[in-house]
Amino acid sequence: MPDLRHRTILIVEDEYLLACELETELRDAGADVLGPVGSLEDALDLVASGRSIDGAILDVNLQGSTVFPVADMLMDRQVPFVFTTGYDDLVLPTRLRQATRYEKPLDIAVVLRRMRQMIDG
Asked: What pTM was estimated for this model as a whole?
């Protein structure tokens, strides 16, 4: 289990059970969890609030909306993030194709290890 103590991780996920599982695993790794939120509006509000965010896990499709505006805001703030999705990488706009993408169902341990690597640079 990666050590994410004193790191704030944003979860943007509209599948309730997966959001809860991510939250539990992140808290077990010592992270402070922001969210989870399941809508684009709530995610945009959290990022725009100026709260400190060390990393984010972003579901690509949120109730029919894409999470790309959130990803753009995080990129502007140089906050690392990963995408989770049931789609292939062609769904991502060209500007976001370099982002790490995990297909569902997730191996959460792998996602958390990658999050730690990204935060550590």
From this structure: 0.96
The angle formed by the CA atoms of residues 51, 56 and 57, to the nearest 5 degrees, is 145
Q: In whole angstroms, what is the distance from residue 45 CA to residue 12 CA?
A: 12
Question: What is the sign, positive or negative, of the torsion defined by CA atoms of 66, 69, 72, 78?
Answer: negative
Q: Which domains does the chain have, with CATH numbers?
A: 8-120 (3.40.50.2300)
Mean pLDDT of 71-84: 97
Asked if residue 83 lies in contact with residue 100, where contact means CB atoms within 8 angstroms, the answer is: yes
Residue type, 51: R
Q: Give the SS3 label for residue 94.
A: helix
Kindly indicate the confidence band of residue 2, based on its pLDDT and cuts at 50, 70 and 90.
confident
